[in-house]
Structure formats: structure tokens, C-alpha cells
Write a sequence for this structure.
């Protein structure tokens, strides 16, 4: 698994890429292989030892949405505020609403945050 990637000496390839062992490669949805097709509250103690590492925030948002689909219940969408405050008001037209909604700074939730009852959310 992942630990073997840190303990095995790999020869440094010319293009800074390595070949992953086949056990680290998913043939289907990664979340389904790690968490199963359905997640219930009774599964939480068993799921605490499982993790998906994502190289970028955009990847973690995709994984979070996929995991949310495995949880029972109705999804609720929470939207961020998409207004800007400027003293002179001139900069407002430089930041269209669509642009503001597309931003997801590190450590911040997406513009449309989907949650379900009993879903675990980390607040920083």
C-alpha cells in the first residue's frame, strides 16, 4: 500500500514520475472501493482507519461529493455569500458573480456546500 511507497527505494526516473504498484491503482470509483457502496452510522468506527489522500483541493472536493453520495439521507445545499464590499464601488464590476462563485481558496468550502444529516464536517 501507501506505506510501501515510502519504504521502497525507487529509481528516480528522468521525468519525475514513478510507477505505482497495482495495489495502489483503483479500477473504479475510489470511494466505493475504500468506503463501500453504502455508509451508515454503524460503520463510523470502522471507517476511522480509512483515508483518501488528495494532491489538490479540487480533487478532495470531488472525493467529498462522492462519499456524500454513499451516505443515507437528504442532501441540503448551502451557498456562500457572493458579494464584495468596496469603498468606492468601482471594483464591483471587476468581479462578476460567476467568478466569485468559482473560487475555492485553501481551507474554505466551495460556493455550494452539500451536506447531509450526520455527515462529518471539519470546521477550521
Amino acid at each position: 500500500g501507501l506505506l510501501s511507497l515510502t519504504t521502497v527505494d525507487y529509481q528516480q526516473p528522468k521525468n519525475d514520475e514513478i510507477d505505482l504498484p497495482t495495489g495502489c491503482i483503483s479500477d473504479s470509483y475510489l470511494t466505493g472501493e475504500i468506503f463501500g457502496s453504502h455508509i451508515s452510522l454503524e460503520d463510523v468506527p470502522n471507517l476511522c482507519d480509512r483515508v483518501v489522500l488528495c494532491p489538490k483541493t479540487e480533487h478532495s472536493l470531488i472525493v467529498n461529493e462522492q462519499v456524500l453520495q454513499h451516505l443515507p439521507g437528504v442532501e441540503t445545499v448551502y451557498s456562500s455569500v457572493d458579494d464584495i464590499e468596496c469603498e468606492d464601488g468601482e471594483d464591483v464590476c471587476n468581479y462578476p458573480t460567476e467568478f466569485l462563485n468559482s473560487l475555492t481558496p485553501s481551507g474554505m468550502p466551495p460556493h455550494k456546500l452539500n451536506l447531509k444529516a450526520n455527515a462529518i464536517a471539519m470546521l477550521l
User: Anything to note?
Assistant: Helices lie at 2-7, 30-35, 44-47, 57-70, 97-102. The first helix runs from residue 2 to 7. Residues 28-116 form one domain. The mean pLDDT is 78.
